[in-house]
């Protein structure tokens, strides 16, 4: 057994989501969003490198020796799966291990709105799941993909960096390809996928203009494309797509989005009210004729008002969803306050006066 497995096993026993190892500090665990050190000595550079080398292949060791970061999947002896990022920093080596559950959680277990299941009924176009790193985008996409896999006879091609959740073929055929192992880039993977008779294509990250352009081509030619962006909110996600492509393609990009973008789901992870876990809270935009017109006329700043009036379609603003989650005691009000754009409606629920100076905790109102 690799020595690093002992830290991973300890982390899982504590219920953490991530294990952090870095030179000069003790191992740390991500517990319900907070980083906590374990009782262990500070790791030295020689010690941590020896731990890491035990789990790397020869090719990975050579690549890492050149100074490049590594993203890969690691499976412990007992079959537990982790997504790993290995990097170098000023004081030496660092590594982050993200726990990947063996069982893919279904949409109901995640507590996602019913409209997320309805999005899997689209046969073509693009669906974006966006948010900062660590907000559960991969889990949401895995659940959507699993729902399709269980209910439809389709050819699903998933391009990932690295492969996280393992999808056994059920009613659908699922082909998972890993960046650096099976494909040289997401754009190349998309290009190849279009020759492999796909029905659904998942793009792990739409990180550059070429990948975005290829994903748009796939969506326009009769395929359902699921992709992620490291953006927050529907408006920023749309603007990111438009700004990522050359200026001479701006009109074409706006036309594509207004006709082929099915939905944008942007999420944050809030601590639950009992502080024992985290819950995904979503902003949801469903494409309508009105929103399409706002995109084509570069008035995306007016989209939030459409989210407010589109509740009957399943749309919601992040602040709306956060406030409802606070009122129903699903999430911690202090954490929700930090994620809210307009913080005023949340002030009366805040219990941490450091977050909202001038707050009277006893009365739950702003002190005069």
**Structure class:** alpha/beta
Helix content: 25-40%
What is the succession of H and E elements? Answer: HEEEHHEEEHHEHEEHEHEHHEEHHHHEE
Largest sheet geometry: 7 strands, mixed
Question: Strand order within the widest sheet?
Answer: 9-8-10-11-7-12-13
Estimate the mean pLDDT confidence: 94
Low-confidence stretches: 361-368
Shape: globular
Q: Radius of gyration, Cα only, in angstroms?
A: 22 Å
Distance between the termini: 62 Å
Report on the structure:
There is one protein chain. This protein has helices at residues 4-14, 45-53, 58-65, 107-110, 114-119, 137-151, 186-193, 209-220, 234-244, 250-260, 289-296, 303-309, 318-327, 333-339; strands spanning 18-22, 28-31, 34-37, 70-75, 81-89, 92-100, 125-130, 155-160, 173-178, 200-203, 224-229, 261-271, 278-286, 359-360, 365-366. α7 runs parallel beside α8, α9 (234-244) packs antiparallel against α10 and α13 packs antiparallel against α14. It is built from 14 helices and 15 strands. It is of the alpha/beta class. The longest helix has 15 residues, at 137-151. The strands form three sheets. It has a seven-stranded mixed beta sheet, with helices on both faces. A six-stranded antiparallel beta sheet has the order 3-2-1-6-5-4, with helices on one face.
